[in-house]
Amino acid sequence: MTDMVDALVESADRGYGDVAATVERAGLRSAAASLINEILFRAHLEDLAAAESTQVSSVVITLTHRDQEMSALVSVGPEGVEIGRASRGADIPPTRIVQDVCAAAMALYGPRERVTSAGPEIRWPSPRTMLPRLVSGSPPPRLFHAVVQRIAQVLERDRPVHLTDLAVRHGTDKWSFLHQYTQHYQRHFAPLRDRRLKICEIGVGGYGDAEAGGGSLTMWKEFFPRGLVYGVDIADKRALDRPRITTIQADQSDPEALRSMAEKYGPFDIVIDDGSHMSPHVITSFKTLFPCLAENGIYAIEDLHGSYWPQLFEGSEDDLNSPDFTVGFLKQMVDGVNHEELLQNEEKAADPINKLIKGIHFYHNLAFVDKGRNEEGSPFAFALREAPELLGLQDIR
Ligand SMILES: C[S@@+](CC[C@H](N)C(=O)[O-])C[C@H]1O[C@@H](n2cnc3c(N)ncnc32)[C@H](O)[C@@H]1O
Fold it and tell me: With b meaning 16 or more CB within 10 Å and e meaning fewer, what string describes 137-148?
């Protein structure tokens, strides 16, 4: 299914005609199954199920292509969300939500401005069923409309999303009693949400338990609707692979392993380091993966406390500027951002990485490094270096 999703994301980027070609190649069945999987992932019908103690409500999602169609019956009730089963206990026949398969793919994975204004067609149960209920004073329960509304919102790309909600929902500690990172991620990543991106996170979670973790990968998958998410962990996490989520087993302190991973899956637009938090590992990963980051990419490093604590993560507070520890290493780059202003420290001014770092942002335990061309030029530094008379100064060379 991952290949199918990748193909749909890629073709939706190019437009409706390319999606149609992908559907022709793969067949409606495979494309529709993949899209329905994504619709249900984003709709969170399980919330409605959890709030329900008696009612059962069903919908049929139908995706069409030329004269073919493929449908899935979804029932929501106290027993959860069931797919493919007749709606046991539902006393109203299912509503049918119909959408052209290519329009659905464009709505889920296409650029926002190309999402069709023609949302899905909603075919409510017949007036013969519905009107007598109204007249007799037993209108449909809230659940009946809520299930349809959630799916329609997904197909209109209209589901509101906030990272803190997603962190809690998917069980990552990025917002928890431990950390409050989502406010910063929201600020830095919100403008990128609708782009087609590759996001790589070091540290899948769950440590040695092959089936545990993956909370943040799922959060990124939902936050970036067109994103492909890659998770690197020292442990084998393949059991957590899902459509748009791929895990890779690699040690972040091994530059070769990281390089070959980046060659195979990159270039990444975002890298997040939430792995071992040991300074030598963090620094090695940065030195290896930052150069492979896409132009204008963002590199985030979490849990900077690892830089300070000898008891945990082998950190140190002895020399807060030491480049051997994560925070000192990052601090060095702050002067690099201003490399064009350095008049005397030629060695620092000449470090090639300076020209690739557009900005650095520090928050409590979290840093972002923005990749981008940093060669704005500095008229004052030019004058001070080469023509002080331009500033009315004596020659100070
Ligand atoms: C804090 S958890 C990640 C949590 C996850 N990012 C989240 O927010 O849900 C750290 C993960 O890093 C992994 N890890 C530890 N040392 C590593 C290393 N040297 N290379 C790669 N991953 C490592 C651990 O196995 C663990 O699963």
Answer: eeebeebbebbb
